[in-house]
Amino acid sequence: MMSSPDRRRKRLDRSIEVRSAGLYALSSYREMTYVLAPRLLLIVGLLILPFILDPYWQKVLCAAAITAILALSFDFLAQYVGLVCLGGAMFIGFGGYIAGLMNANWGLPPMLTIPLAAVIGSFVSTLVLLPCLRLRGIYFAIVTFMLPLFARNVIVALGLFGSTEGITGLDTLPNTWVEQYVILIALLVALFGLRRLVSEDIGLIMMGIKDNDQAVLAAGISIFRYRVIAVFVASFIACFAGAYLAHLYGWLGLSLFAMDFSILPIAATVMGGMGTLSGAVIGALILTPLSEALRGFGQLRVVLYCLVLLIFILYKPEGLMNYLERKYHQFERWEKV
Amino acid sequence: MTMSDELLLEVRNVGKSFGGVKAVMDVSFTLYKGDVLGVIGPNGAGKTTLVNILTGFVKPDRGSIIYKGRDIAGMAPNRVANLGLARTFQVMRPYHSLPAYKNLIVPLNSPRAKKATAGKLGDRDSVAIDILEEVGFERDARVPYKTAGSLPLGYQKRLELARCIALKPEIILCDEVFSGLSMSEITSILPLLEKLVMQGVTLIMVEHRLRELFRLANRALVMRFGVKIAEGSPREVMKKDEVRAAYMGTKRSR
Do A222 and B76 touch (CB under 8 A)? Predict the structure, then answer.
């Protein structure tokens, strides 16, 4: 709508009382709805999706949820701890291989191997990343980017775990309902858990480390310790996703270390809005189905990611979530001058 | 400004070079509980490096720092802080987007502060707000809730001090707390520092504002090109020719 000289658009922020839930008590149902509605929309929306989708898109939903968890892990480490980790594929690979091997060798059921692999995988990932934790910025990013390639080549070179063939015939989850709800609930727990974590003292300390590590040291706090905790949390949720992935397709192999698992979550996070956590989830829930819909175009899909990344970095660097949040908290009206 | 005879810190022959630059050379001094030591000298004299060495941010090449009978030279900064040596930074970087009181949550989570506040009533937020009130944040004006980035410089300096106080320190090393402040802001911060000294906190103050510094300091240490050139009471120190030359240039320009 063009603005004519006798009117203008006025933009107002909604009152601060409603928005800063920490400082003020919410006093009415209206305010409560205002705060809860977007959260409920996401939760309920995700939980009813399995009822709406056909079997093919149900699988896509599972894949999207895996990407979303990886994106959460990336966003948390990058924006709240200052560790830009490009090695999402390593977490997926570790989680997937550990779960798959436990299942194939010892016959443990998926309901046991998935949580176990998440714990063991995150221990291993944290140990692997331990020497890198002193690195900052680009150096940490480069090392983490190399690690999945490293792991992959170790497996091929030594002919471990079925080498290039992988291992097939792993147990899958009992039925499609369990399949979908396991990962959807894990996603929601990860999302709201991380949001909670970053608003607690520990999250503040981690953000402090990202902003100004010297001041945190001067405050008598060991940076290293908190980085270890952060990496453990981030790799825990990602390894869970990896372990789940192995059981989703009943198969483990080198493609668990595929670059896609490192790159796609980053594209999703950029699209959804860096540092919002929920944005990472929304980005993944849009990008994954989109790329699935374009499956017919083959390699052109990669071009699509790149385009999405480019467009968002150039034209909407704040990402979807920040934009939506701003719009939600503002209202506009036309006013006579 | 009473000087007790409890030896708190003994710095012996501390030195540090960065490549070919000798930032601090062979500096020794002692500090007793309740002292206020002013560290002065022209730019590039090595004052900030000295503070960095004392607080563990820079590892000295040689020398020892005996704090309460224990050598802390080369110890990690967070461990030094937990022993009770807190510091402010010359360039302040509070967490801009966070409310002022949230800035104190980080130091309040250190092992030392947790031990000090253990068993006390109230959560960390309220402890933080109490500390801010102590350094002159008006609770009624809701200043503690304003974002740190939006505070005027004087308040940001107070916040910096508050972050030290949260550690319940024995020694606070102030790296130019007065710089960039107006006269009236300085006169409002001075009583704060005096109060800290009364409470038994020992201060090491790196400062360029000598007049304001010497209202507080009972001892002064003068540095030039990394070397300690004088030490003693402020009055004696400022009488020395070397000090006058270092500060005001050579005789000709005087």
Answer: yes
Residue A169: how many other CB atoms lie within 10 Å? 9
Residue of A nearest to B162 (CA): A219
Kindly report the pTM of this predicted structure: 0.83
Question: Which residue in A has a C-alpha nearest to residue B164's C-alpha?
Answer: A219
Q: How confident is the model at residue A74 (pLDDT cuts 50, 70, 90)?
A: very high
Q: What is the CA radius of gyration of chain A?
A: 22
Whether residue B228 is contained in a domain is answered as: yes
Q: In A, which residues are within 8 Å of B145 by CB distance?
A: 23
CA–CA dist B104, B100 (Å, integer) = 8
Q: Output the six-digit token pair for B55.
A: 């607080």
Domain that holds residue B239: 1-84+202-254
Residue B221 lies in a domain: yes
- Domain parsing of chain A, residue ranges: 56-258
Mutate to test the interface with A, among B54, B78, B97 (most CBs of A within 10 A): B78
pLDDT in tens, A157-204: 887 787 777 787 778 888 888 888 989 999 999 999 999 998 888 888
d(CA A237, CA A73): 7
Neighboring chain A residues of B55 at a CB cutoff of 8 Å: 218
Structure-token pair, residue A279: 């944005």
Specify the CATH number for the domain of residue B68.
3.40.50.300
- The count of structural domains within chain B is 1
Q: What are phi and psi of B244, to 5 degrees?
A: -60, -40
Residue among B73, B29, B51, B26 at smallest CA distance from B207: B51
